[in-house]
Amino acid sequence: MVNYRDRAWLEVNLDSLRHNAIVLQEIMYENCKLMAVVKADAYGHGGERVACFLNKIGINSFAVATIDEGIALRKSGVMGDILILGYTDLKRARELEEYRLIQTLMGYDYAKDLNEAGFNIETHIKIDTGMHRLGMDKDNVERIVEIFSFKHLNVSGIYTHLSVSDSREREDIEFTQRQIDAFYRLLEELENRKVKIPKIHIQSSYGLLNYPEIRCDYARIGIALYGVLSEIEDNTKLKPDLRPVLSLKSKLVTIRDIKIGESVGYARAFIAERDSRIGVIPIGYGDGIPRNLSCGNESVLINGYKVPIIGRICMDQLMVDITDIPQVKVGDTVVFVGKSGDKEISITEMAHNGNTITNEILSRLGSRLNRIYISLDQGQ
Ligand SMILES: *Cc1c(COP(=O)(O)O)cnc(C)c1O
Predict the structure, then answer these.
(1) Cβ-count burial of 169 within 10 angstroms (0-12 exposed, 13-18 middle, 19+ buried)?
(2) What is residue 80's DSSP assignment?
(3) Which pTM was predicted?
């Protein structure tokens, strides 16, 4: 795909990405390293490009959700550790070895079967301390010990995942503390049974921002690396100076004048209450703009003015009311996320208006959008 600003595009600011990586590394416990979570195409920022860039500035540890994401990174030249957080079909064990990917062991039977596949595979054991999604039960010590002796599996890490680390409510903090304590108790148990403890990791973004004191070898950082939080109202213990990496833009391709009483778009969901000027923008829910932002639930920025989306968002187009913008013309840039004049719209705001979280919006910004990488630093 040609990377120009022809229809609708994402601007990925690599300087901000580098800045975030540095400030996040600074708040980590000593010797803890950033594991960059680049699943779902690096939360829409472009997995290969983002991982290669981070690799170049010294990050050597990555996490993805699927084997194909991992293979794509290897093929684009990413060095260092690549951990697959999710399930990999046993039929693909050979590729885990071939591409030197680290597979999460999410259960005893899975580990046993993977060992029996006969390929030499690096693994991290996942421990369920209360999330009850993936992982071996924290109390199943015997079985966990056994996995360390499996001939073909090199267990280089052990980790858990926190379920409410974003919350500052007392009850949730207590729950999280119990998860953390249970994990460390398990590690002690393992040590008592002569297991050499591999690398450990617990925190994702909120885990780091709210529990920075936890001692680990890695923190698995996704959303914060991209410079945003999941929800507008989120309040974290630490508030590092994170900078949004992504902007989302398009342009006006048609301007039309309609009379009072005329309608715009499907279902005639917008009826003009005055003579109006309507702008048509070639981006829609097919590009990842949530359809529930239709009918005034979201605004966009044009030439520093904030104007509402009107009518129903279509798959490939949407319409805005530009009656109040002077001197607007076809070709003017439309900002969905980012700055225009002295105004700014954050992706967190868009997620809020769309009744979801930033993570979902980012990961759904589809393959149809061009990505343009921006860096003022030379040599990138
Ligand atoms: C996605 C994911 C992360 C990253 O979470 P963020 O909140 O985006 O930092 C960390 N750990 C696991 C297991 C994940 O699935």
Answers:
(1) exposed
(2) S
(3) 0.96
- Tokens representing 78 are 């990413």
Q: For atom 3 of ligand 1, which residue has the closest CA?
A: 204
* Three-state DSSP state, 71: helix
Q: How far is the CA of 258 from the centre of ligand 1 (A)?
A: 47
Distance CA 245, CA 308 (A): 24
- Per-residue DSSP letter, 183: H
By most ligand atoms within 8 Å of CB, the mutation choice from 204, 205, 347, 359 for ligand 1 is 204
223 lines ligand 1 (CB under 6 A): yes
List of the chain residues with pLDDT < 70: 1-3, 378-380
The answer, yes or no, to whether any atom of ligand 1 lies below 6 A from the CB of 371, is no
DSSP 29: P
Q: 360 to each of 7, 178, 246, 333, how far by Cα in Å?
A: 23, 28, 14, 25
Could you tell me the distance, in angstroms and rounded to a whole number, from the CA of residue 3 to the centre of ligand 1?
29
* Residue with the two structure tokens 């280089």: 156
State the Cα–Cα distance between residues 98 and 235, nearest whole angstrom: 43
Whether residue 37 has its Cβ less than 6 Å from ligand 1? yes
Phi, psi of 38 (to 5 degrees): -120, 25
Q: Dump pLDDT digits (tens) for 322-379.
A: 999 999 999 999 999 999 999 999 999 999 999 999 999 999 998 899 999 999 875 5
Active site residue 266: yes
